[in-house]
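Practice problem 4.
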């Protein structure tokens, strides 16, 4: 039986228990036998449910551990990429200093050439720039909204709702 099928199965058993208890035409010994059988079925299903839930929680822990290991490797690779970026940039800058501007070189594997580009160098702090030369990113401050909602702020109540949640914890 699949885990998602268990609640429906439990509901079916409880419904059948109600039917047995409500049926006054059944002798007491037959009722007791059917109820004992249903109790055994109920115990087996609950045990299966427990086993499946615990198996899933073990799967969760395994995936979480694998995620940590992969993340650690990603960090190592990120550090390696940063190191390689620094090395390539250093070589490029060194060649820029050693060679005369515009001097070209090539062989069958590589080619050194120059291209023109433009860039802007600020002579002041970005905060002191006129508004037309700046960008503003608007973001909702969920922490401030939460505090305002808890304090009963009407304006916050018009734009947001405080929601109570239950988060499962698997350790």
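Answer key:
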């Amino acid at each position: 039986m699949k885990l998602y099928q268990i609640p429906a199965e439990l509901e079916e058993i409880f419904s059948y228990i109600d039917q047995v208890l409500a049926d006054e035409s059944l002798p007491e010994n037959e009722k007791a036998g059917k109820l004992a059988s249903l109790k055994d079925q109920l115990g087996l299903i609950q045990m299966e449910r427990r086993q499946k839930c615990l198996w899933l929680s073990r799967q969760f822990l395994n995936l979480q551990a694998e995620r940590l290991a992969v993340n650690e490797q990603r960090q190592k690779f990120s550090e390696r990429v940063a190191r390689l970026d620094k090395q390539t940039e250093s070589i490029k800058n060194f060649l820029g200093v050693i060679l005369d501007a515009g001097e070209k070189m090539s062989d069958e594997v590589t080619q050194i050439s120059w291209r023109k580009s433009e860039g802007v160098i600020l002579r002041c702090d970005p905060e002191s720039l006129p508004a037309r030369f700046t960008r503003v990113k608007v973001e909702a401050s969920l922490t401030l909204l939460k505090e305002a909602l808890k304090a009963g702020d009407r304006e916050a109540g018009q734009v947001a709702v405080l929601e109570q949640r239950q988060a499962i914890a698997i350790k």
